[in-house]
Structure formats: C-alpha cells, structure tokens
Amino acid sequence: MRVLDLAGEQLRVRLEAKREKHYFEVPMPVAVYDDLHGSSMGAPTVTGTEFSLQVLEAVTVLHQRGYHRIRFVAMWAPTGLHVRMFVGRDSEVPGGHPREEFFDQIAYTSLDDADEPARNFAGTTIPAWWSAEMIADQILAAIPPIEPRADDPDYVARIQDLFEHHAAARTVPLTEDERG
C-alpha cells in the first residue's frame, strides 16, 4: 500500500486551483431503501400456461406471414403433470405426437405451470418478455427451411380459433383430448 503525502508546494498549487461547487445530499435511510427494494419489480416471469399461449400466438404470427404449413401440437404428458408442446413443419408434426426421429427438426418442450423467468424452446432460452414476433423468428431459425405458401387457410382458421378461445380463458391450448 502506498500513501501519498500532498503537502508543501503541491498542496498550495492544488488549493489555488480550487473550484466552488454546490450540491445537495439526499439521505437514504435503510428503511426507505428496504421499502423501495421490496416494492420494485423483479424480472418478469411466465407460467407454463402463459408460455404455451405465447408460442401459439407466435404460430399465428407465422401463419399471418404465410407459413400455413407450420403446425402446433400441445398435449398432456402420460403422467398428466406436464404439457408437451411441439411446433414444426407439417411433414414432421402432422397433428399428433411427432416421431422421435424428427425431434432435431422441430421446436418442442415440456411445460409445468411454475412461474419462470425463461423457458427452453426452439433451440434457445426464451425470456418471459419476448414478443410473439420474436418467438416466431426463433421458431423459423430452429426448424428446417420452409416456404411461405399461404395454402392451408382451414388449418390457419382452426389454430386462430384455438388461440382466441384459450387466450380469453387463460387456459392451456391443448390440440388433443383436453380432458387429459
């Protein structure tokens, strides 16, 4: 440790170069700090139900962009404790549980209903604050290339109805038997 001794001529020069300043101190008592800290917002979180709705909304965004052959499937896991969700091209996700050989070509996850700041899906960790457009872009990046042909309006209408129904009810958008 080094101690600098500012004295003599150096001190005199420093004092001659002084500048007048005016400022205020704002006291921050510990109780005020604790109150502010306790009421501050933490990172946003999302439940499994909310995340499944975000992903379904992202699929509707892809459909609006003309990617009608993107499929969404959500179903109860055999235990009934989680929801399995799959998104991919209709050749890999034909409307039911995809075959394991296609898992590297689709976006999928298993969801519980815990509050989480992020969820693993589509090859990355998706934070709760991502928009449907951002998730849609990530889905396109995670699956093999597909052309936006806008050629299946019946499926698009069914998925849009599914999204609207479950978004209004704030429920898991299951595409198979919803009784579990």
From TrEMBL:
<protein>
    <submittedName>
        <fullName>Uncharacterized protein</fullName>
    </submittedName>
</protein>
